[in-house]
Design a protein that fits this description.
By secondary structure, the chain is α+β, with helices and mostly antiparallel strands. The chain has helices spanning 7-61, 75-87, 118-121, 123-130, 173-254, 259-282, 294-304, 306-312, 331-348, 379-382, 400-410; strands at residues 92-96, 102-105, 135-136, 140-142, 145-155, 161-170, 290-293, 315-319, 326-329, 354-361, 365-372, 414-420, 424-432. It is rod-shaped and about 155 Å long.
Length: 437
């Protein structure tokens, strides 16, 4: 027997896969964003260091005899630094003594001769510049702007560090990062939507697969039962016929009104009905759908059940319109469906119970409504009542309502069952009207 993967197992597998996909997508986009930020930050630092080194070399060539100190440089240095500032979109350029005293400040943040406040803030990069190595700072924020600085040593003729040159620029790449972040968010949201749609699609496929599996299993069961019934049907029916005939002959021979003889006939008829139900359930004959008036079919069903109705003294009321209700289908199959419903109603009521049969014409269909005042059906059983072999009767086969359901489905109709324990049951079967009816 083929082993199927459970529905919960498939759903858990799909959910795990999709959750893993989302996790990988999120981590990947976040890592890409962080790496892009780090790369742009390093690029800015290297660019600022390169500018600082170029300027420091240019300044080293024109250092006055008294060295780098406030007031030692003429207008030419200011012109050079201002030109470099504008060309490279820098925020500021400063020239400091080794001790951190301002010599030149293009943006006039500090005056020449004053200690530069950024020396202590950028102590790491400044210390490296004092030792002869260019260095850049980490990003820092000034109001709503992110800035970065780089420092380079000014080397004298004797190879000693005689000054420090600092350049500062805004981190304009944050605009690029911001646009990139927005794009990644859009990608993530789109990914989540796609994953949600895929999850819904896989869930629907899982439900469909479960139904298909159930249909295959049911088909295998029905095929097995069909082969079994076909093999033993005649073998059972022939002895039943002999038993019933023998019981009737014995009753006539001895001319006794003994209930035992009637019991034999009744039980044989009961067994025969059960066997007929199995045969009707198992066989798959091609149906011929033709127009048939519905009222005569209902009338035949009631005449067939006259004996059962009389024996139980059931009060059967009918409401059948005068106008013909013509439906398209197989009249024998329609009769079988209505007969099964009426039999269930008669079996549900006690002696002197009530059963009503009503025909209603609708716009495109005709309804057969059968009501009884029997014990009703529990809510938990209503969902199972049309499944094969489900029954609440001691001697039932569990095929009656399943046969009804199949017949209604064959005729493209509908079946509705409403019941309340202690108040009875109402069954409505609806058959489409024939064209032009």
């Amino acid at each position: 027997m083929q082993k199927w993967v459970s529905s919960r197992g498939r759903i858990a597998l799909i959910a795990g896969f999709l959750a893993g996909f989302l996790l990988v997508l999120t981590i990947s986009t976040y890592t890409l964003y962080k790496r892009a930020g780090t790369h742009l930050d390093n690029e800015l630092g290297e660019r600022l260091q390169s500018i600082a080194m170029t300027l420091s070399h240019a300044i080293a060539i024109d250092v006055p005899d008294r060295g780098i100190e406030p007031g030692a440089f003429g207008p030419s240095l200011y012109t050079l630094l201002y030109s470099v500032k504008m060309e490279n979109l820098l925020s500021n350029i400063v020239l400091l003594t080794v001790d951190g005293i301002t010599v030149v400040d293009i943006s006039n943040v500090t005056e020449p001769g004053e200690p530069n406040p950024f020396v202590d803030l950028d102590i790491g990069a400044v210390t490296l510049a004092r030792s002869g190595l260019p260095a850049s700072t980490n990003l820092y924020q000034s109001e709503n702007i992110y800035l970065k600085s780089a420092y380079a040593p000014v080397i004298g003729n004797d190879g000693d560090v005689i000054g420090i040159l600092g350049v500062e620029a805004g981190a304009s790449y944050f605009d690029v990062l911001r646009a990139m972040g927005t794009s990644l968010i859009v990608i993530n949201v789109a990914g989540i939507i796609i994953v949600a749609l895929l999850a819904f699609f896989f869930y629907r496929q899982t439900v469909s697969l479960d139904k298909a599996q159930a249909a295959i299993i049911q088909g295998e069961n029905l095929a097995t039962m069909g082969r079994m019934v076909a093999g033993i049907a005649h073998e059972i029916r022939n002895p039943l016929s002999i038993i019933k005939t023998s019981a009737e002959r014995l009753e006539r021979k001895y001319n006794k009104n003994d209930e035992v003889f009637s019991y034999i006939s009744e039980e044989v008829d009961s067994l025969n009905r059960i066997l007929t139900g199995y045969l009707n359930f198992a066989k798959a004959e091609k149906q011929i759908h033709e127009p048939h008036p519905l009222p005569p079919i209902v009338g035949r069903c009631l005449r067939i059940l006259e004996v059962e109705i009389a024996e139980k003294s059931v009060d059967v009321t009918t409401s059948i319109p005068d106008a013909e209700l013509v439906v398209r289908g197989d009249d024998k199959r329609i009769q079988q469906a209505i007969l099964n419903i009426l039999l269930n109603a008669l079996q549900a009521v006690d002696s002197n119970g009530e059963v009503s049969v009503t025909l209603v014409r609708r716009a495109r269909a005709a309804d057969v409504i059968v009501r009884d005042n029997g014990g009703g059906i529990p809510a938990k059983d209503l969902k199972e009542i049309t499944k094969p072999f489900f029954t609440t009767k001691k001697h039932g086969s569990g095929l009656g309502m399943n046969i009804v359901s199949n017949i209604v489905e064959e005729h493209h109709g509908t079946l509705n069952i409403e019941s309340e324990p202690g108040k009875g049951t109402e069954v409505t079967i609806s058959f489409p009207l024939a064209s032009g009816a």
